[in-house]
Specification:
Blueprint: H1 14-37, E1 45-49, H2 55-64, E2 69-74, E3 88-92, E4 105-111, H3 120-129, E5 131-142, H4 157-175, H5 186-192, E6 195-203, H6 209-228, H7 234-245, E7 256-263
Parallel strand pairs: 1-2, 1-4, 2-3, 4-5
Antiparallel strand pairs: 5-7, 6-7
Helix pairs in contact: 1-6, 4-6, 4-7, 6-7
The structure holds S-adenosylmethionine.
């Protein structure tokens, strides 16, 4: 199977599980609110794209029940695998290069995935193709260029260091082909893909223990890459991790743009 290469944050590392837990705490309430509004219920057929961990998949499974179907795909299914029991089917799948894993879905959802996929356009087309007429697409993606700071309140050297390292993280993502202004484009891209009733909104936390956990896991995961690229020293990273561990840095995330629409 051909896989899109270039994904910076490999799911094989221990920190990936901590990152997925933090995403669940930070973003599941927003995601679930949107999907509830679509009217999800027993019998729905859902495709969860780039599932990552098990939280969204397990929630969908409860909503659709035994008469429904949840297909959870990812290039690396190590963390979603724990949810693999009916109605959930977990499959290794690259949304940027492969045909959809089925058709006639009532809901297709991808969160924080497309920004990392080199052929985002093809991925989006594939997701729309997989919907039944009237089916809903929900795409949620970051827009780090809209709010680039890890510490929006940059009042001292700890916060300056945090924002410098965040800048380094963004450089690594951009080098791997991530579109750092992707989130804002979603409403236009969904309309161009032929969807109707397109709407979008943004959410980001400004201070939360889950932001600290996410930052700590992310920095530990990309430490070597930051150092190798000359974007930070090991001392910078140790100091930053100690600052984050105080729990008083008021760390934010990039805005997550949620955009949704209906197939004609
Ligand atoms: C930042 S994580 C988000 C995980 C999950 N959607 C969430 O919101 O918690 C990105 C996920 O996308 C997956 N991914 C990256 N490129 C992909 C591709 N081309 N096709 C499918 N999944 C991909 C990664 O393996 C990872 O699990």
């Amino acid at each position: 199977m051909t896989r899109s290469d270039g994904y910076l944050l490999d799911n094989q590392q221990d920190e990936a599980g901590q990152r997925f837990d933090a995403f669940a705490t930070l973003f599941d309430p927003t995601t679930f609110r949107h999907i509830e509004r679509f009217g999800i219920g027993p019998g729905w057929r859902c495709w969860e794209v780039g599932a990552g961990g098990a939280s969204v998949v397990s929630w969908l499974a409860k909503k659709v029940g035994p008469t429904g179907r949840v297909v959870a795909t990812d290039i690396d299914t190590s963390w979603a695998a724990s949810a693999a029991r009916p109605p959930v089917e977990v499959r290794v799948h690259d949304v940027g290069t492969e045909e959809p894993p089925g058709e006639g879905f009532d809901l297709v959802h991808a969160r924080l995935v497309l920004v990392h996929v080199p052929d985002r356009e093809r991925a989006l087309q594939s997701m729309v193709k997989a919907l039944r007429p009237g089916g809903r697409l929900l795409v949620e993606d970051a827009d780090p260029a809209l709010q680039p700071l890890l510490c929006p309140d940059e009042y001292g050297p700890e916060q300056q260091l945090a924002n410098r390292l965040r800048n380094g993280f963004r450089s690594l993502l951009a080098e791997r082909g991530a579109d750092l202004a992707y989130g804002r484009k979603l409403p236009r891209l969904l309309r161009q893909a032929g969807l109707r009733g397109v709407e979008a909104e943004a959410y980001f936390p400004v201070a939360s223990p889950a932001c600290d956990a996410l930052e700590s896991a992310t920095i530990r995961q990309i430490r070597d890459q930051l150092v190798t690229a000359g974007l930070a020293t090991h001392q910078d990273i140790d100091r930053h991790l100690a600052n984050v561990a105080t729990g008083s840095m008021d760390l934010a995330t990039a805005p997550m743009i949620s955009a949704w629409g209906r197939k004609g």
